[in-house]
Amino acid sequence: MKKVLVLIFLQSIFSFSQQLNIVPLDFNSTGDDFGCSIIHNGRNIYYTSSRKDKQQIYFSEKSGNIWSLGNTTSDELNKADQVGFPTMTQDGNFMIFSALNHTVKGQGRTDLFSSVKTDGVWGDVKNLGKIVNSEYWDSQPYLSRDGNILFFASDRPGGYGGTDIYLSIKEDGEWTKPKNLGPIINSSKDEMTPVLALDNKVFTFASNRADGFGGFDIYYSIYNSKDFDKVRHLDRPFNSDFDEFSYVLIPQSNSAIMTSNRPLSAGKLDLYLIKDNPLKQGQCELLTGSLYDITTNEAIYGEITISDLYDPSKKFNIQSDDKDGSFYIVLDLAQSYFISASKKGYLFKSKIFQTNSEFDGKEKGIVFELSPITKGTTRLVVNFEDGNYNLSEDSFIDLNIAANFLKENSTLNIQINAYTYEPGGEEINDAISKKRATVVKENLVNLGIDESRIKTKGYGKSRPLSAESTDDAKALNRRIEMQIIGE
User: Fold this and answer.
1) Domains of the chain in sequence order
2) Rounded to whole angstroms, how far apart are CA atoms 261 and 476?
3) CA quadruple 29, 35, 40, 41: dihedral positive or negative?
4) pLDDT digits (tens, 9 = 90+) for 330-350
5) Which of 325, 326, 327 has the alpha carbon at shortest distance from 298?
6) Whole-structure pTM over 0.90, yes or no?
7) Nearest CA-CA partner of 397 in 287, 310, 484
């Protein structure tokens, strides 16, 4: 008997130690708190709460290891009988959410809507339309980190069970017809709360299929941008005899946030921090940036376009914050990216950014200083092979951006200024710089710009930006600039 009591005691201690790994978040209420989206590299969380007897969207901010108690979002966002499951791009300026009987007309009883944040307020609420929404229940959306893939749950006809998970892809700014994820993910039961981690691989969802411990349990699969591999079931204590939903991995940490109605809950459903999350997502580069006016030092609310340097078709857009000009980007490791910032009334600016092969635990920074068009000069990201006039393949991204800028500002005239730092004397460098300026002009003309709008000037080795003789200094001095010279 004594041995049995000792065993029970040890099992109790083990169970308690497991529970210490799963703790309710401070901002939970006596109502339901569930369905979260984590943005700004883990600094902010948006979630659903019924704390004021009405299901609405709230947000909390993290300071150190402490979350604020939570604030409701704008009235326009919450103008519905029920609103919830916010999901956002990492810049925090675009949201998709679900709502029942929103004042913006929908397609069915619960629909998916989008919203944009302007001047710090969520507004411009739009129904995603009949291509995505149905006359049935469409809810629990989740966006990929670039905002180009949308997962959601629906009980529309044609599925495998009661509720299934669907996928829609944004192409040319429009959402495609949703595709059922198929029998690897969906079952004859109910699948809900899809979540794709920031590595674009670890995919989690909830299901009440027969092999679970409780009502709904957390399951996961690995996504390869086309297909899903074998579905696996999270073990105890992450799943329990109760319900678990919405398993969200926190960026660059071993932690996650999950929804559950287990006995520790302050309400029926609460958000829980899992300190030692068993699902390990791939590491990414976290990039924090800022965008401002080079003449006034004031923040700019503009657009940031990120594309694969060697495959420009792989791209996505985000917005800088409308108050402080900040923005956040999540990038794959060991990749080269082309990042361009723009704003109406300003010259664009572009940079190449190379991510590390391994995550070093630090956020990287990038700054864009934009010049007003009337005073503007911008450095074009175009490169030539050493000692000649052949453009490198990666030069054509910025040349296309420059051509589009000139088409949108059709009254502007420009001068292409070329600077070199090649072996040899001034005469050789003058000749190379003049020829390179001409090559850039010819390419802009080929892209549809009237040649009468473009002048060229070769400066050779004159006007260096650095007097040093290092390779970095030479690369800085070897440049092509586009200067606004009038209308």
Assistant:
1) 22-274 (2.120.10.30), 283-375 (2.60.40.1120), 377-487 (3.30.1330.60)
2) 58
3) positive
4) 999 999 999 999 999 999 999
5) 325
6) no
7) 310
